[in-house]
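Help! Submission page says 'invalid entity' but I think these are all valid:
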Amino acid sequence: MDIVERIVLSEEQIQTRVQELGQAISQDYGDECITLLCILKGGLMFLCDLAKHITSPVVYDFMSVSSYGDATQSSGVVRITKDLEESIEGKHVIIVEDIIDTGLTLSYLLNNLHSRNPASLRICTLLNKEAHRKVEIAVDYVGFDVPNEFLVGYGLDFKQLYRNIPYVFVPKPEYYQDQVD
Ligand code: PRP
């Protein structure tokens, strides 16, 4: 694709790591049922691939928590645009995210979800951009630590596009000039 400046994580690298994460989660939870809580829309591709490698029983639920809109910087404003369908009280929940950047979204989510009294609440993110953190977040499962650059693909969008691309890439600057810090 013309927009691709550089591939950061290949499809093969991602699939290998996702399999490892699924195996680690299966070992940790055994026969306990896990609620995989996908944060839309970015977490969707990761959820689908990750779930294939989890041998523990799983159920899915979904939330939309928007902090960015179509902009490429966090506004710090978080709002729930779609809430869970099932109660998570007494359930073992793993939040499935594509990326943790400033941590603002998850900080809000963790507070919100803890108040619903799950049996346990963990975080699984494919990408962890620690250098950009504004609030500290303890992450339980991390696919890859990534540097502070604009990443697109495998769930991560640019103006809602490219979420379906099976690898993670840096776009050419001319596509996003003046839109990213
Ligand atoms: C992205 C990502 C996380 C959040 C991380 O979602 O999926 O939810 O930003 O950023 P933070 O750590 O700085 O809060 P976004 O709001 O862009 O929605 P999307 O998943 O629909 O792309």
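Support: the input was valid. A stray whitespace character was the problem, and the output above is from the cleaned input. The first strand starts at residue 4 and ends at 9.
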